[in-house]
């Protein structure tokens, strides 16, 4: 079982770098759907991901159709959008025999509406106060959703230390 975060046409290198860092920390695969709004050589992308890039499995997709076709079981696809009806916490991600794919939209426009209309039951949202903000930050949203998934899966393969002294459990 693997969790996957997919970014549809990401624009901001810092968000993608931060998400890559979260992927490294949660053993999550990262999918980047082109076109990207930056070069993968971008210094901000590298800075945000720090020295964790070697620990992230990244797959590039030429477009959204190619990404969708790469998913073996569309039942495990979740479209994350502030316009969805169901909260991300309402979904059961605990089945560790299946991969889970979380697709996030472009920072400025989100996911394409026709895609969301095609898979309305797969759309999930993070509740937020829309009176004060347009949307949560993309990298924060990815972290919130992936940590709910790994929490339901009992944090597979993740270290659970609480007190540190020189990077070792006290």
What is this structure's SSE topology?
Layout lengths: L2 E6 L4 H14 L2 E5 L9 H7 L8 E4 L2 H7 L6 E4 L5 E2 L12 E5 L8 H6 L4 E3 L12 H15 L11 E2 L2 E2 L1
Parallel strand pairs: 1-2, 1-6, 2-3, 4-6, 4-7, 5-7
Antiparallel strand pairs: 8-9
Helix pairs in contact: 1-2, 1-5
Tell me the radius of gyration. 16 Å
Average of per-residue pLDDT values: 90
- The percentage helix is 25-40%
CATH class: Alpha Beta
Q: Report the CATH topology name.
A: Alpha/beta knot
Strand content: 15-25%
Q: Encode the helix/strand succession as letters.
A: EHEHEHEEEHEHEE
Kindly name the structural category: alpha/beta
Q: Work out the number of β strands.
A: 9
How many domains, as an integer?
1
Number of contiguous helices: 5
The CATH homologous superfamily is termed SPOUT methyltransferase, trefoil knot domain
Outline: globular
Question: How far is the N terminus from the C terminus?
Answer: 32 Å
Strand order of the largest sheet: 3-2-1-6-4-7-5
CATH architecture: 3-Layer(aba) Sandwich
- Uncertain runs with pLDDT below 50, 5 residues or more? none
* Major sheet: 7 strands, parallel
